[in-house]
Design brief:
The protein has one domain. A two-stranded antiparallel sheet has the order 1-2. Helix 2 packs antiparallel against helix 3, helix 4 crosses helix 5 and helix 5 packs across helix 10. It is 71% helix and 1% strand. With 336 residues, the chain is mainly alpha-helical. The protein is built from 13 helices and 2 strands.
C-alpha cells in the first residue's frame, strides 16, 4: 500500500474536488433547461423541483480522475466503455423516459461489452458458460438495484460511497491496484456529490448516475479476489452490496404479493417504510450507511476467514437478519 499511498490519496481528493466544482454547474444548467424532477405528491414528495443529471457530475469526475492518475489497460477501457454506454442510456432516459424494454436492451449491450473485454466472474470449479450467465444476471441486478434505492436524498449515492470504500479495502488486502484506484476515485466523486445530494437535495443522480453506479460497483465487486482463504469467500459481494440487493428483493416480493408489476414504482422500499415508521429522512439514510458499512465488514470477514464453516455462519446470520428485517418492514402500513 505504501508504494501507492499518495496516488490513492491524490485520486480521492481530485475526484472529490472535481465533483464539488462540476455539480453546481450542472445544477444551474438543469434548472436553466428545465431538466428537473417535479413533485407529484405521491412518490415524489419534495417541495420544489430538483435538478436531474447528477450522474454526469459523478461520471465526469470519475473519468477525469482516472485519466490523470491511471494507465488505461484493456480491463479499464472495457469498464469505462461499458460505463459510458450505461451513462448515455441514463442521460436519454432522464431527458425523455425510455420504456423498460429499451433500457433492458441498452443494459444488455453494456454488459456484453464488459464481458467481451474479459471482465466476468471466474470461478475455477464452474464451467465458462455458467460463469458468463452468472456475470450477466449479477450485473443486470446491480445496475437496477442502485436505481431502485435512489428514492431518498443521499441514499443511493451514500450507500454507493460506502460500498466503494469497502471495495477499496478489499482491493488493498488483495494487492489489486486497478480495483483500488477505481474504487477510491469513485468514492471521492460520490462524497463530493453528496455535498449537494444529501437532505435537502439540490440535485439527484437520475438514471444516469444510479445505473452507472450499479454497473461500476457491481463489476468491481465481481472481479475482486475473495477465495484465497476459503472457496465460499466468493459470496462476500452479496453482503458488500447487501443494502441495494435487499431492497430490490424486498420490493419485488411486496409487489408480487400485491399483484403489481415489479417494473413500475410504488412506495414499498425499505427506506420509505422506515420513514413511515418513525425515522426522519436523515436518520433513515444514516442508518442505511451504517448497515451498509456493517455488511461490508461482514463481507471482508467472510473473505478473510480461514474456515468455510465460519464464512457460511456469517452469511447465514446475515440472511436471518435480512428475513427478520423484511418481516418487520412488511408490517408497516403504507396505505396512509
Amino acid at each position: 500500500m505504501s508504494a501507492y499511498f499518495f496516488q490513492y490519496l491524490f485520486s480521492f481528493i481530485l475526484a472529490l474536488c472535481v465533483c464539488l466544482y462540476i455539480t453546481p454547474l450542472i445544477i444551474q444548467a438543469a434548472h436553466r433547461y428545465d431538466i428537473v424532477d417535479r413533485p407529484d405528491n405521491k412518490l415524489k414528495t419534495h417541495r420544489e423541483p430538483v435538478a436531474y443529471l447528477g450522474g454526469i457530475a459523478v461520471y465526469l469526475s470519475f473519468l477525469f480522475t482516472l485519466a490523470l492518475t491511471f494507465s488505461f489497460s484493456r480491463d479499464v477501457l472495457g469498464l469505462l466503455l461499458s460505463g459510458t454506454i450505461i451513462a448515455l442510456l441514463g442521460i436519454i432516459d432522464d431527458l425523455r423516459p425510455l420504456g423498460p424494454k429499451i433500457k433492458l436492451v441498452g443494459q444488455t449491450i453494456a454488459v456484453f461489452v464488459l464481458i467481451k473485454s474479459g471482465i466476468y466472474v471466474q470461478i475455477i470449479f464452474l464451467p465458462l458458460p455458467l460463469c458468463l450467465l452468472i456475470t450477466f444476471f449479477w450485473l443486470m441486478t446491480t445496475i437496477n438495484a442502485f436505481n431502485i434505492i435512489d428514492i431518498m436524498d443521499g441514499l443511493s449515492a451514500g450507500v454507493g460511497c460506502v460500498v466503494a470504500g469497502v471495495l477499496f479495502v478489499v482491493a488493498l488486502l488483495n494487492g489489486n491496484h486497478m480495483i483500488a484506484i477505481m474504487a477510491v476515485s469513485l468514492a471521492g466523486a460520490l462524497l463530493g456529490f453528496l455535498r449537494y445530494n444529501f437532505e435537502p437535495a439540490r440535485i439527484y443522480l437520475g438514471d444516469t448516475g444510479s445505473t452507472f453506479l450499479g454497473l461500476m460497483l457491481g463489476a468491481l465487486a465481481m472481479i475482486g479476489s475473495y477465495t484465497e482463504r476459503n472457496d465460499f469467500g466468493c459470496l462476500a459481494p452479496l453482503l458488500i452490496l447487501g443494502i441495494p440487493l435487499f431492497d430490490t428483493a424486498f420490493v419485488m416480493y411486496i409487489r408480487w404479493r400485491r399483484g403489481l408489476s415489479v417494473i413500475y414504482g410504488s412506495p414499498d422500499h425499505f427506506a420509505l417504510r422506515l420513514r413511515k415508521w418513525r425515522l426522519t429522512t436523515r436518520q433513515t439514510v444514516l442508518a442505511s450507511y451504517g448497515a451498509s458499512l456493517l455488511l461490508g465488514v461482514f463481507g471482508i470477514a467472510m473473505m478473510l476467514s480461514p474456515s468455510p464453516l465460519i464464512t457460511l455462519a456469517i452469511l447465514g446470520f446475515c440472511c436471518v437478519c435480512f428475513f427478520l428485517t423484511a418481516w418487520l418492514l412488511k408490517k408497516v402500513d403504507m396505505s396512509m
